[in-house]
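ugh ok fine here u go
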Amino acid sequence: MKFLIAGFAFALPWLGYWWMMYSLSGNGRIRGFFLLLLTSYLALIFICMQIDPVYNPEAMIPGSARESTFLVCMAMSAVILFPFYSLGVYIFVLRPVKRPRKRYRFLLLCLLFAVAGLVLLPFLWHSAPIVYPGLLSFPE
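structure:
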């Protein structure tokens, strides 16, 4: 459930961002959409590269390996799904003016990406220690 709530909390501000850019365009096209998408995607990749999960037994409440792996998996799924989500918002939610309403199309898009994120989760769970070797230092 936390995975889905975090995904929705990530999706909503980006919907607002793309909607603002769409509204400012005036003609129904975001100028330089792919350049904006690329720069925001590179920033997201850079932020996720800064993740360094390490076990700290001296912490007040030491984290567990599963919790840290889960947080890393959420970040990895955000990196994988972000460009597809942004394209989906731009093409499926913002551009069409026909029925159903934008909010229903957005909820349908979120449902689609929730399913995609849940399908990706087992694969990311097994690949997270390979990408972030600090997860291997946690005790079992």
